[in-house]
Amino acid sequence: MKILSFFERSSRNFRHSSPYSKFLVLLAVSTGGGIGLVAYSDAKSDHPSSDTKKKKVVVLGTGWAGTSFLKDVDCTKYDVQVVSPRNYFMFTPLLPSVTCGSVEARSIVEPVRRIINKKNGDIKFWEAECLKIDPKNKKVHCRSNHSVHVDGKKEFSVEYDYLIVAIGARANTFNTPGVTEHCHFLKEVDDAQRIRRSVMDCFERANLPDLSYEERKNKLNFVIVGGGPTGVEFAAELHDLINEDLVRLYPALHDLVKISVIEAGDHILSMFDKRISSFAEEKFHRDGIDLKTGYMVVNVSDKEITMKEMQNGKVHSLPYGMIVWSTGIATRPIILDLMKEIGQANRRVLATDEWLRVEGCENVFALGDCATIQQRKVMEDITAIFNIADKDNSGTLTADKVKKFLEGICERYPQMEIYMKHKQVSDLVDLLYGPNGKSGTKELSIEDFKAALTEVDSKTKFLPATAQVAAQQGTYLAKCFNKMEEREHDPEGPPRIRATGRHRFHPFRYRHLGQFAPLGGEQAAAELPGDWISIGQSTQWLWYSVYASKQVSWRNRMLVISDWMRRFIFGRDSSRI
Amino acid sequence: MKILSFFERSSRNFRHSSPYSKFLVLLAVSTGGGIGLVAYSDAKSDHPSSDTKKKKVVVLGTGWAGTSFLKDVDCTKYDVQVVSPRNYFMFTPLLPSVTCGSVEARSIVEPVRRIINKKNGDIKFWEAECLKIDPKNKKVHCRSNHSVHVDGKKEFSVEYDYLIVAIGARANTFNTPGVTEHCHFLKEVDDAQRIRRSVMDCFERANLPDLSYEERKNKLNFVIVGGGPTGVEFAAELHDLINEDLVRLYPALHDLVKISVIEAGDHILSMFDKRISSFAEEKFHRDGIDLKTGYMVVNVSDKEITMKEMQNGKVHSLPYGMIVWSTGIATRPIILDLMKEIGQANRRVLATDEWLRVEGCENVFALGDCATIQQRKVMEDITAIFNIADKDNSGTLTADKVKKFLEGICERYPQMEIYMKHKQVSDLVDLLYGPNGKSGTKELSIEDFKAALTEVDSKTKFLPATAQVAAQQGTYLAKCFNKMEEREHDPEGPPRIRATGRHRFHPFRYRHLGQFAPLGGEQAAAELPGDWISIGQSTQWLWYSVYASKQVSWRNRMLVISDWMRRFIFGRDSSRI
């Protein structure tokens, strides 16, 4: 009893926040008689609170972008308010694991209020959906999204000085008929839980008496549309669930199960290195997962999915038990409305500049999946660039002039650097004047200058819609906000091209830290920085450790690890809850 | 990596069932660097399978009664089929803990197929709802209850030789208007999860901007109707959730929260000993939980709950944020239909005899909350009893004759024993002839006999609708089924009163093992066998250990314990999922 009382007291002290650094060693006593030691540390800084005339920053969304902004923004400088229909942050890369019960939904979510609490509670959170962004009046209109009855005022509006739009995207159906009605998506916790129930449903249905062989088979036909990382990971998880756990509970049904992955392109995981893509395809073939590459889904009815062979236009139909639709993302309606208002109506995705500022309205920032950075093109600014470099207005550029101007140009136009790498030259002078031009006296006219750089913009890179990009953008923006006043007088960015002086901040630059593709059966593939490729079981262990370490809190980390342990020991659960 | 590979291999071996007893020591490696040892053992017997002409036993329901029957029935003797809309067994006593996140829903459920698998898979399970019991044709009509689309045949029927009805009961609303629409019940996993979301909803709603003080207060008014063990435990859990965890996340709202318990009787926990009931009431007063005893709810609207003071008939209204309705159980419609068909239409609850056989139809058994045992009354059989005892038909009974007949009479009529205890006599002779009548020659006429026993039946005990009763009934019935053939020739029960010979089996006798009432704040009360009472923190630890040990599988046990640990360490989660 003494140990337990100590334990309890410790845990209470631990949970009630103190401003000091905490360190707690927990004696974890289990009935099995074993003792486990877990080390825990958490640091917390003490901010003095001052509420005088702080500018209002409103953050929409609690996904990767919104949450990393929140974690890093300095609340003593701004009055931060968060609006989101989800009062938690979700670790999306583990969502496919939730669908099959390798990890519990609750383990990968962290309440926003816990994150806020770590910042001394200076952030307000409203659980509501944003209905409309009104950039003219600097307001957002919101509605509480509670399922239970609400009396009186449901809607309210929040004023802002700065607005951070980080509401993510919706699933893209490409307007295929029947998809919304009959397919599962995989974007939210609810989706994952529904998929999980649905898998169990298919097995229980196929197991009912009085069914023909064909009927049983159709019910156990699992179809995944989209061969991207999410679809592939779900297919792999499902295969594991069935072969490791369900086969023993439904032995008669095992041979009837079929998993199909439908992909319009020629390969699955096409965004990865070819070696990974081929490895995945081979593994799936070995596992008996049916890969239908080069097929486009044209219709989904309540019983069948219809697809067209891309090569010859032949149409095939496939009865199914469950479909998971995972073909990419599309813009949310509220963003489309905003785009109309600010003159971006002809675009498909909301555009921001390289500092994440929404083009066409002031003090509104957009990050994560809901926007793309519209990289300024070199050719658009080519005359201005030439004029700046040509300080004496001689109408021509010498290598010397270019050298002086080098600084900042590659930061402002990152495609320049990629183009130079592509051309295998080391700097701008080499590119413009050739390998021996450095010491020469060759002078470039504006036409020569344009001609040399005409293909640069073809190397403009668009950022992928991943958690990594969103998180980096959130952190970047928070840092900018924290230094806003300072940088007003002491700008750190590259020189302005179409104006004088410098930009306040460096533009956002994405650092790719690698990407995983778990393939099931304790196999994974990974693309690591520096074009490294890693495939196999060790990569799966790398996956475990990276994903455990990337959790936003120690709580999540412990929960996720203990979920993995539970799965190792007891297998996945088959209860339909 | 070596440790991990060992771990993985072990776990696979472990999970793939082998017919032998297993023992596995797991090295639980966590990132914290700690090592935990957990001992695990599981035994499994090897039954030879023989499918020749076995009688069909159909079990309806996978609750306490159905599952304990399944666990103990000998599948080599019967062709067992189970029909239930729930493909899992749920440990109901922990359901109130799920509502507030002290325990996860998944930890307290065990898939039926896992239980079946331990019996070598000789049991068939159909995930379906039973729509109609047809005792004339010995059939049950069922319908698959899947939420996803089902093609073709949804309904099917199952034939039986023996039917075990164990489908439980529904919540009793006493036909109070508005209850079904606006209140939460607490019977299923879904209910608990909905309540959990609803609590978080209330907090998030009360926290929205632009609300008045009154509006916030109303939204944080949590009302529990019914002061039984479930209602009281939920109130206690809710109080703990709010005071231990939510207070830090919503500091501004803490003073607005109010928890009320409405009970029509004079006391809460009235089925417990008075000391427990008073202790609970005092603790709730200290905790600031509003106890409204002596109030009956008469109406529930979308905003207010209306109740009548029992003493003076005054009507009060109370605005609320959430109501949990927990006032007892009522008979399910399908059972009411069956009752009409078998001549029990004028009863409120399905009646069985003391061997759990449904009165009025053959080979149908009912157990758990869906039926009550109709104890045969002594006075109904009084003449038959007298005649049997009076072997020589002299018309009078001597003490000797009664002594010979003693055997069996108390088993057949357990109220006799309670009555004797009440009268403080040690046996039947003392009761009939007085303390000195044993050696006397006093002879009893049938009128004397009747007069002496006329109050016996007032001591008939009805069994409470608890998990304990249901589980014991399931085990009892399984044992009867296992010995069915044997007992045909060698009956073990008491002598038949209105026929010759003996009953095949002993009638069902309930052994009360005690009952817990967790009261929150690490305090619990317990009624233990032998009229012992235990109250306080040590009782809470007893509660932890009893509930951990009572889990149906090692898996559940470990999950529940690790949930408790998680709660101790990290507190409860406030995410709205």
TrEMBL record, chains A, B:
Localization per Swiss-Prot or TrEMBL: Mitochondrion inner membrane
Where does this chain mainly localize? mitochondrion
InterPro entries (alphabetical): EF-hand-dom_pair (IPR011992), EF_hand_dom (IPR002048), FAD/NAD-bd_sf (IPR036188), FAD/NAD-binding_dom (IPR023753), NDH-2 (IPR045024), NDH2-like_C (IPR054585)
Alphabetized UniProt keyword annotations? FAD, Flavoprotein, Membrane, Mitochondrion, Mitochondrion inner membrane, NAD, Oxidoreductase, Transit peptide
Q: Name one GO cellular component term.
A: mitochondrial inner membrane
Q: Tell me what reaction this enzyme catalyses.
A: a quinone + NADH + H(+) = a quinol + NAD(+); a ubiquinone + NADH + H(+) = a ubiquinol + NAD(+)
Kindly indicate whether the keyword Cell inner membrane belongs to this entry.
no
Topological relation to the membrane, as annotated: Peripheral membrane protein
EF-hand domain location: 377-412
Specify the species: Aristolochia fimbriata (White veined hardy Dutchman's pipe vine)
Q: Name one GO molecular function term.
A: NADH dehydrogenase (quinone) (non-electrogenic) activity
Could you identify this protein by its name? NADH:ubiquinone reductase (non-electrogenic)
Q: Which family does it belong to?
A: Belongs to the NADH dehydrogenase family.
User: Which Gene3D superfamilies does this chain map to?
Assistant: 3.50.50.100
| EC number of the protein | 1.6.5.9
